[in-house]
Amino acid sequence: MKAAVIVFPGSNCDRDCKVAVERSTGASVDMVWHADTDLPEGLDLIVLPGGFSYGDYLRCGAMAALSPIMAEVKAAAERGVATVGICNGFQVLCEAGLLPGALLRNERLKYVCKRVDLEVTNAQTRFTAGYGRRRRVAMTVGNGEGNFFADEPTLDRLEGEGQVVFRYLDNPNGSARDIAGIVNTRGNVLGLMPHPDRAFETELGSADGATLFQSALASA
Amino acid sequence: MRAKVHVFLKPGVLDVQGKAVEQALHGLGWGGVEHVRVGRTIEFDLKDAADPEAELKAMCEKLLANTVIESYRVELA
Q1: pLDDT beyond 90 at A19
Q2: Active-site residue A113, yes or no?
Q3: How confident is the model at residue A109 (pLDDT cuts 50, 70, 90)?
Q4: Which chain A positions have a beta carbon within 8 Å of B66's beta carbon?
């Protein structure tokens, strides 16, 4: 099993993601610099980590979405490679057009950093199959712009097509319809604001994030 | 040629920053202030553009604005 974590200038969860994927799945994880123009061969999983890529200049994720490596990430996602964007990574996926919607400033303007309880809204995706019949999992969030927004028809479509994967039980940032994570129509690109990479062993308060990485690689 | 691009959140998209500024202005005694929106302006010189308006539109759609949430207005002088 082989995974890659994309490192943008300003990423700060890249090492966390590497350790989280390695420890929860045993996969080998390459770090790939944003200016590279090739991804390693035979990847089963690509992770876009959290952080403040390019200092959040212009809009969160906007500059990173135009990084040279993103053309390769898009091509890999189109080939069906499992791709996860966490926090800033979710913002990058939206800016890159790989996921619908956008992330706005939190409703109450505060940076929110805390444990969140999530509903597994769709346990049939390749990222959530490992949760089985569990409907409630815990992770943490740490974001200032995690307020998911999409227009009403898009939200209806996301819900109707089972693309809403996680919802907040107690919405921390004003996200539309309590949405914490979504997948693309094909189901191989996941974006979520909560951090599975900060919840991969019980010593961290929750090991529920490990299941997400295990599921993603089990389906590869 | 100097271009100015003004980018704002679309009407209907909650502008929490605008709301905070509005409350602060009310706090300073300007109770008549309503519907504050905070946006950004990006200015630059544009040289050798065959069709500046079309190119500016493309720049806005590709980078300067996120049209899912933002609208933009361009001034050319």
Answers
A1: yes
A2: no
A3: confident
A4: 59, 62, 95, 102
- Residue spans of the domains in chain A: they are 2-218
Residue B30: CATH number of its domain: 3.30.1280.10
Indicate the pLDDT class of residue B51, thresholds 50, 70 and 90. Answer: very high
Catalytic residue among A17, A34, A94, A195: A195
Domain residues for B8? 2-76
Distance from CA of A144 to the nearest CA of B (A): 12
Going by pLDDT thresholds of 50, 70 and 90, the confidence category of residue A152 is very high
Of A66, A109, A149, the CB nearest to B13: A149
> Residue B41's closest chain A neighbor by CA?
A58
Q: Do B63 and A62 touch (CB under 8 A)?
A: yes
pLDDT of A172 strictly over 80: yes
Q: Exactly one of A13, A60, A87, A94 is catalytic; name it.
A: A87
Are the beta carbons of A37 and A11 closer than 8 angstroms? no
Q: What is the pTM of this model?
A: 0.95
Rg (CA), chain A: 15
Q: Which CATH code fits A2-218?
A: 3.40.50.880
Which residue in A71, A52, A72, A74 sits closest to A61, CA to CA?
Answer: A52
Instruction: Confirm if A169 and A118 have CB atoms less than 8 A apart.
Output: yes
Query: Could you identify the residue written with the tokens 């209907």?
Result: B12
Interval A102-126 mean pLDDT:
95
Q: For chain B, what is the domain count?
A: 1
Shortest CA distance from A147: residue in chain B: B14
CB A118 within 8 A of CB A136: yes
Phi-psi region of A173 (alpha: psi -120 to 50; beta: other; left: phi over 0): alpha
Nearest to A105 among B17, B63, B66 (CB): B17
